Amino acid sequence: MAISDTQKLDGLYKKLFFGVSKTDTASAKSPSNEGIPSPLLLRGDLIWGQSGDILATPPTNTTGIISVHNDNNSSAVLATVDTTADTNRTWKTGLTNWIPPEFGSRYSIKIYAATSGTPNPQTTGTLLFPDGSGNNDSYQFDYQAGVLNFPDTNLPTALSGKVIYVVGYRYIGAYGSSSLDVNFQSVSIGKTTNLNFSTGTTATNVGGVVTISLTETLQSVTDRGSTTTSKLYFSNTTASTSTQTGSVVVGGGLGVAENITVGRDVIVNNIINIKSTATSTSTATGALIVAGGVAIGGDVWIQGRLNAESLKIIDSVFDSTAIVVNTLMKTEIDTYSIQDFRSAKYLVQIDDGLGINAKFEVIEILLLINNDGTVYATEYGLVTSDGELGEFTADVQSDNMLRLYFTAFEATNKLVRVLRTAMSV
Prior knowledge:
By secondary structure, the chain is mainly β. It has helices at residues 5-18, 121-124, and strands at 66-69, 77-78, 80-81, 90-92, 110-114, 126-128, 140-142, 147-149, 163-171, 183-189, 203-212, 231-234, 310-313, 316-325, 331-337, 341-352, 359-369, 375-384, 390-396, 401-408, 414-424. Among the domains are: 5-9 and 13-40, no CATH class; 66-171, no CATH class; 311-424, Immunoglobulin-like, CATH 2.60.40.1680. Strand 3 (80-81) and strand 4 (90-92) form a beta hairpin. The model is unreliable at 191-203 and 214-229 (pLDDT under 50).
């Protein structure tokens, strides 16, 4: 004798709603009295690994996760009738994993009866409703299998001489338990031989603590060729004040193949080894580029040249300029604010001409400025190759700027290099 529908329903009820195995009739054992667990099988290879990226509002066009099927994209799916069932009773899309309305009501599929071959069934066809038209002609759609069935007494009259078109959205993202969109609260993982979060566009959100104590290999996060690389987010905002604090704590080394962007301080308790050999020719080039100031508590060793527009040491400053003078007019060769520096020592080198007939001069100049802006100057250490090439003067004007001038004796192209050492006020 065949199993009765009552016993079939009892077994299904216990399996689906209580996750237990049926061992006796409903009258003998209620679901709460069944003691053998029997949860539904969740196949890891069929898990929608990027389901966390399915938004409540469907996309307009197909993405790496969602395939769009509608008139706008000329992609409504023409179903084929299942010839093993009663005539027109069951229709197959041939496509699986349609996104159900549990992700949002807009994902509910729409069924149209339309003429075969029409490019726009939503416009030319007749929309059929799940609850039917009041003529016992409702339908059911299996979103996983992509199968439409009319289990009610009648078929829709609109289906006469027509075919079925299905409009909706399908999941086409990554599959597998290793590509889950995981929201961790607190996870501790001990010995693991293979922990592989291989994601396409999946964002793995970690809100609590993930502790991984490995004695074997931990595989890295990889990308399976999806349109967007996977991401790992830690929403914990704990600040780091040591190697044992922060939202991410790594006990060993860390290898990163691309850029790292840090929004706050970087504290390093040991050596920073920069192996780039890029040459510095400006403030924007070189192996290490710092946009702001640099504070150094110990010695500094430089194998190459030190190029600085201005070098200040405690209350002193080293500064240099170079200017070409080709006139007999008084020419400004350096300036600074007397509110910054009380005194200055200049080493001035002058190159005049080229070749064996070139002339050179080097001289030292000391300047002192008192509080009323009076400049006191002295020159010493004069060395020339063929006599003096000009004279120097200095003054302070109403803008409280000291200016050092050079007046050439001959109107030839002279390169005047100035090195200033100044002491603060």
